[in-house]
Amino acid sequence: MGILEGKVVAVTGAGRGIGREIALLCAKEGASVVVNDPGVGGEGEGGDSGPAETTAGDIREAGGKAQANLASVADPAGAASIVEDAVQAFGRIDAVVNNAGILRDRIWHKMSHEDWQAVIDVHLHGCFNTSKAATPYFKEQGSGALVHFTSTSGLIGNIGQANYSAAKLGIVGLSQSIALDASRYGVRSNCIAPFAWSRMTASIPTSGEGAEERVKRLQSMGAEKIAPLAAYLCSDAAHAVTNQIFAVRRNEIVLFSKPRPVRSFAKDGGWTPQEIADIAMPAFEPDFARGDEVSAHVFPYDPI
């Protein structure tokens, strides 16, 4: 028996890339899977039933149970249909993997309101919409798992991704609050920051210092390496794991810390702006994060 035997899992953005690998593994581990994917392009354009239908068909061909869903998670009604399809097709919903995403990468001064809104809608609002739709079922049955996909672009920062970074860090805040609010009902909520080559990461520019090397390293990290952690977090084996942030880099699993105070400085009577310049900032400076820090500075080594 697999670790998800008898469970029903919905995976968004499951037609291709990381989502597809998660859907396939969850099915292999015994889950019935709702494969959600509207089949849009990398920036959210168009639509095609092919990716979702193909993944669902591959699961059924391998002897598993799957239902394709073509809704957009950015639409509250569409997100609700993902959960409703799970309940109607398989009788319940046990976990939702919020993987769906698009990119509208633009350097900050060229980012439009439309670029900002489109990415926020799919990533942050999409996670809210699907999680909100699943919660009444989780609450009634006294159990449920939410697995949200964040990114080091949000946790650390990245160039040309203000919209994506804001959405991905927002997802962490959403996950943490869900974990705290819903723990009384047996609901768990966790985040994964994936390192993997996919259709989305293929848009990363290769120009600039160290960019080509970073892309080459990322190309060596397969999407299939992300799926085991996602499947585990959906299972009863993870019953005590909630409110955490993980990353996966090939065969390496990383547990991230949450923001914590690094250093504090108090002065009797308070501060003037000049005293902050003369005293506080020089004291803090040794512990400053570097101003140009991206994930390559935090993870400069090749994973095994």
Describe the structure.
The chain has helices at 17-28, 50-61, 76-90, 113-141, 152-155, 162-182, 211-219, 227-234, 273-284, 295-298, and strands at 8-12, 32-36, 65-69, 95-98, 144-149, 187-195, 245-249, 252-255. Strand 7 and strand 8 (252-255) form a beta hairpin. The model has no long low-confidence stretch (mean pLDDT 94). The two termini are 29 Å apart. The protein has an eight-stranded mixed sheet with strand order 3-2-1-4-5-6-7-8, with helices on both faces. The chain has ten helices and eight strands. By secondary structure, the protein is an alpha/beta fold. The radius of gyration is 20 Å and the shape is globular. It has one domain: 3-Layer(aba) Sandwich (Rossmann fold), CATH 3.40.50.720. 41% of the residues lie in helices and 14% in strands. Helix 1 runs parallel beside helix 2, helix 3 runs parallel beside helix 4 (113-141) and helix 4 (113-141) runs parallel beside helix 6 (162-182). The longest helix has 29 residues, at 113-141. Residues 39-49 have a biased composition (Gly residues). Pfam families: adh_short (PF00106). This is 3-hydroxyacyl-CoA dehydrogenase.
